[in-house]
Amino acid sequence: MRRFSALIGFALFAAVMLIAVPLALAGQGYWLTVLTTAALLAFGSLGVWLTFSIGRINIAQGAFALIGGYVVAILGTRYHVSFWLSLPLAVLIAAAVARLVGWPILRLRGVYFAMITLSLTEVASLAFLNGGSFTAGASGITSIPRPALLSSSLSIYLASALLLLIGIALAWRFAASPTGAVFRSLRQGEELAASLGIDVARYRLLAFVVSSGMGGAAGAMFAAFQQNIFPTSYTVNDSVNFMLYCFLGGLQSVAGPVVGAFLLVIAFQLLSVIQRFQALLYGIFMIAAMLFLPNGLMSLPQVLAARRHERDAVVPPR
Amino acid sequence: MKRAAAVKRRHVLAAAGGLAAVAAGLGRPAIAAMKTFRVGVLGVMSGPDAAWGLHNKFCAIATANMYNAVGGFEIGGEKYGIEVSAMDDQLDPKIAVAGAEKLTQEDGLRYVIGPNVDTTALSIKPVMERNKAIYIPYAFNKTLYTPPAENAILGMIASYEAGPIIYEYLIKTRGIKTIAFLAANEPDPLNQQQAGVAAAEKLGLDVLVKDATYQASATDFFPVVSPIVKKKPDLLVLSGVAPATAPLLIKAARELGYKGLLSTETAQDIKILTEGAGKYAEGFISVGGASTPEIRSAYMESFVKEYAKAAGQWDDEAGTKVYALEMVLHTIAKAGPQAIDDTSVYKAAIDSFTMPNPFLKSASTLQYVGQAYFGQKRQIGVPMVVNEVKDGSFQTLFVGSVA
Amino acid sequence: MAQILIDGSVLSASYALIALGITLIFSIMRLLNFAHGELFMIGAFMVYYVYGAWHLPFVLGLLIAALVPALIGACFEKFLFRRVMRVATREENSMLLAVGTAILLDNVALFLFGEEQHGVPETISGVLQIAGGFLPYQRLVVVVMSLALIALLLGFVQFSRPGRAMRALAQDRDAALLMGVDVDRTSMLGFAIGAGLAGLAGGLLVTIQGVNAGIGVDISIKAFIMIMIGGAGVVSGALLGALVLGFAESIGYSALPGSETYLLIFVALVLFLIIRPQGIMGHPWG
Question: Are the beta carbons of C32 and A114 separated by less than 8 Å?
Fold first, then answer.
């Protein structure tokens, strides 16, 4: 039953993204850009969500977005590789880097893992900054060619929306599969999982590699649309934001990071009217959400239901 | 005591600003009956670098308020009220792109002042070109201004242009022979460092240190500065130094016993300099706007007041950013009212445009420059004011110009 | 060479205050205080206003630089963290809350203090020359005061009653509860002292580095690096972490160009954590 309603929800979301939005906003570059950003950030956050599902706080997604962006930038400007070929390459390279660094750092847990992934974002930025002529250092890579077929805001939006839908479907499949069950068991306790004969190291690496590949894809898409990439294109703040979208949306379901990313990105655009206060409100909003909805916005129905229940219990019916 | 008086004056100004706002509110119907010309400002207006974008915003607002107060700006025989739409890009390319889309598409603006750095300026380039809008970045990346790009106009003097003029002056007046360069490891400062080294070598200076760099977020500069100071250059150039870092670098160099000259090619803020470096700030040479009292025109005086009304206080660094809206308005006036919606008319008028510089006491002209460097005129040709810190305030050393 | 030693000592001494503060909060509450850099920044601004702008004594400024962040920390603990840590189903939630407080403080500071860089006049001018190295008296003041404060804190934690309660809480929360330690009050006190230390560090360093509303994140990252090196929640580890980072910076900045120093520090950190995931002094994690 739950699966069925989730399926309907997904179908509705897909219809809105692929049919309603293009029809309603076809000529409005601004909102299409906002939604493109939201879709790509949501896609990157889905990856972070996967690492959350194994009980790890991942603040490294900015690093992999940066790697993905640089792959597209270097291949596109120097070797004139088509974006449609460099996109999968960006995913593979980001995933390969994740495999390499993931193996040692995944042995760390809790705040240690959080801190080391946060440092990874800095490492990536500094590595590209000091990469000499290969990465063009501080001056970044500009004039990245536009992807073939993607010249209008609408086509860029559609590509991003499609990517996000594929990402949601994959993550959902993942969560429902035996592998997803293994992930959840890792979150409950790695020792326990290990005692059941699960190859803990392999599975947690799998989650991290898939997550980072998704980060790479998001970075590759952003780089191609903005046509430039700099070592500072993704900073610690971006990595933290990827993580926040998951948190705020809720970690219990696949929809969490998507809801979080769309809500925050769009809310931010609407809040921009009161410019000087927007970031301040952002902070207050976050703290309030944690105080009253500690398990994310997706838990709102349950919280409300519990409230109602409580009230009914306290005030006896006459 | 002096300080208290200054603070009080600021309060009075703020109160006056409140009154002016009320008056403007009453005067609305008259303005509403007029046509309006809307100009956008896109830049970083929050976070640690907020000053850059806010200076652009408040300069535009000050210019707009001054014209609105006298009944609007005349284009093609008709008066236009001027309205400024400002957007914060948070120094984030993603947000800058959305902001550019909003200004050009949703609001239909064709003229945008900003953004402030290469990352954001390059990111909005496709958007601005697609929407045929003119933008005035304060970022030095050459691809923005060289053909085939033709919609961006550099808003200020690039420091690679200021460098040689300053060095030449110092060779003549102070007899410097050796020079050293230090820059933050960031695109703009690094480019300025390279350009500075090339210019110095061309002038026959002995370049002792060419490529010393520091991390942009560094806060302790003793380790970086001490090896340079040991070589005892006559002039130490802080290429593209951020206003926040300048006092720390100056202080470190002086505390380490450096006796030579210190200079930069970017605009600085005197309050930040004297507060952060104290007596060590004396003699520091930097590029300024039309802000030092001895060269200000009466128009500039009232501009400074108008700016303080909008922003709360005048800021020296903003003195380099007073020209953008003024140039846009007068170029449109020259090109004719079609230029309001059709930027190709504006671009055609660029080459022959000149106007008297209203901000300086001495007679000088404003025009578009950059033919030599960009292959087309895509830079606002502002006078280059070189300042030296003396007794805790800026004093104009000389006023140069860039071809 | 002398200069590197001098710079390293100055940096290490002041970093130690930052690291001690964050490790104190961590050991008592199992919470990574993301807003640590922001509290440092607020402390720095307090000294700027009291001493730099209003020309009151520097020591008074330092006192306020400790009190205001301590008060903020105590409020955070009492009204935010205590509640969230009680009701949340996942331990990550307290970390998100910490990130939220950091963003909040960052923006409140920007709103209150503006975005400009500020500095204060030296409390004592002049430069001491030792063995070819330069040591401004101001930096000497920072070192001496940092060391004094560290000694004071260690004494407090070791010998005072609340200090012992904190150590008990850090060792075993449940046991401390059974032994009659007032967990809520001790946690609040611990958070306040940790935050106060961050503020003190800021208040001392503002005389050398100045302050602006944006320095919080960088300081927080430095704090994280130090506790990763030393081991989270261990006092000796925090001191060691500060020593390593301070000297890594002073050696790196003078030997390597630009931003390679921090790249190397980070790479070394990752390699080090592979060999010793719990830091030098820390207990194995998990």
Answer: yes
Which of B48, B215, B278 comes nearest C258 by C-beta? Answer: B215
The average pLDDT across A113-129 equals: 88
Beta strands in C27-91 (DSSP E): none
Contacts of A102 in chain C (CB under 8 A): none
Q: What pLDDT sits at residue B133? A: 95
Provide the sign of the torsion angle of the four alpha carbons C5, C7, C11, C14, taken in this order. positive
The residues facing C185 across adjacent strands are none
Distance CA B223, CA B215 (A): 12
Report the CATH fold assignment for B2-156+292-382. Rossmann fold (3.40.50)
Q: Residue A116 has what pLDDT?
A: 87
Does B198 reach chain A within 8 Å, measured CB to CB? no
A81 touches chain C (CB under 8 A): no
Model ipTM? 0.84
Among A30, A276, C106, A269, smallest CA distance to B57 is for A276
Which of B49, B217, B231 best probes binding to C when mutated, by most C CB atoms within 10 angstroms?
B217
Q: Which chain A residues are within 8 Å of B185, Cβ to Cβ?
A: 129, 137-138
What pLDDT band is residue A17 in, cutting at 50, 70 and 90?
confident
* Structure-block tokens of residue B392: 């805790």
Nearest CA in chain A to C26: A111
- Residues in chain C, overall count: 286
The count of residues in chain B is 403
Boundaries of every domain in chain C: 2-215
- Quote the percentage of chain B above a pLDDT of 70: 90
Cβ separation of C97 and A287 shorter than 8 Å? yes
Q: What is the pLDDT of residue B17?
A: 36
Which CATH number is correct for B159-289+386-400, 3.10.25.10, 3.40.50.2300, 3.90.1150.180, 3.40.50.620?
A: 3.40.50.2300
A75 inside domain: yes
Between chains, do C134 and B257 touch, taking CB under 8 Å as contact?
Answer: yes
Decide if B244 and C212 are in contact by the 8 Å CB cutoff. yes
Lowest mean pLDDT among A54-63, A71-80, B28-37: B28-37
DSSP-derived secondary structure letter, B293: G
Give the Cα separation of A66 and A1 in Å (integer): 40
CB B304 within 8 A of CB B291: yes
Q: Who contacts A268 (Cβ-Cβ below 8 Å, separation ≥6)?
A: A278, A282
pLDDT at A145: 86
Interface B:C, Cβ pairs < 8 A: 103
**Residues of chain B where predicted confidence (pLDDT) is lower than 50:** 1-31
Q: How far is B49 from chain C (nearest CA, A)?
A: 7
Q: Which chains neighbour B (Cβ–Cβ under 8 Å, 3 or more pairs)?
A: A, C
C-chain CB neighbours of A139 within 8 Å are none
Q: Which tens digit of pLDDT belongs to each residue from B256-315? A: 999 999 999 888 888 888 988 888 999 999 987 766 777 888 999 999 999 999 988 888
**What's the pTM value of the predicted model, to 2 decimals?**
0.84
Which pLDDT value is given to residue B401? 73
Q: Does any CB of chain C come closer than 8 Å to the CB of residue A109?
A: yes
Listed as ranges, residues in chain C with pLDDT below 70 are 88-91, 257-258, 283-286
**Residues of B with CB below 8 A from C261's CB?**
215
Least confident of A25-39, A286-300, B114-128, B157-171: A286-300
Nearest neighbour of A226 by CB, restricted to B97, B102, B187: B97
Q: Please give the residue range of the domain that contains residue A224.
A: 2-236
Would you call C214 and B243 a contact, using CB atoms and an 8 Å cutoff?
no
So what's the pLDDT on residue C188?
Answer: 94
The alpha carbon of residue A120 and the mean position of all alpha carbons in its chain are separated, in whole angstroms, by 16
Q: Considering only residues 126 to 185 of chain B, which have any Cβ-Cβ distance to chain A shorter than 8 Å? A: 126-127, 130-131, 141, 143, 185
What is the number of domains present in chain A?
1
Q: Mean pLDDT for chain B?
A: 85
Q: Is the torsion defined by CA of C224, C226, C232, C234 positive or negative?
A: negative
